Amino acid sequence: MAGPRILKKNEFLFREGDTSEAMYVIKIGKLAVLKAKGNSEITLAELGPGDMIGEMAFFDSKPRSASARALVDTTIIELPFKSLNAQFKTFPEWAKAIMRTVNNHLRSANQKIKSLEKSDEETNAVFPPHTVTRLCAILANVAKVYGEETADGTLVPPATLRRHTIQIFQQPTNKMTTMTEVLQGLGHMKIEELGEGKQRLTLFKPDFLVNFVDFYNDFLFKSEDKRTSVEEKEMKTVKALLFYGRKAMSAGATKSEKGEIKLNLTQMQNDSMRDLGALFGVDDVNSLIEKKLVGEKFSLDGALAVSFSLDELELQYPYWELIHACRTITRA
Question: Which of the listed CATH numbers 3.40.50.20, 2.60.120.10, 3.40.1790.10, 2.40.50.100 matches domain 3-90?
Answer without folding.
Answer: 2.60.120.10
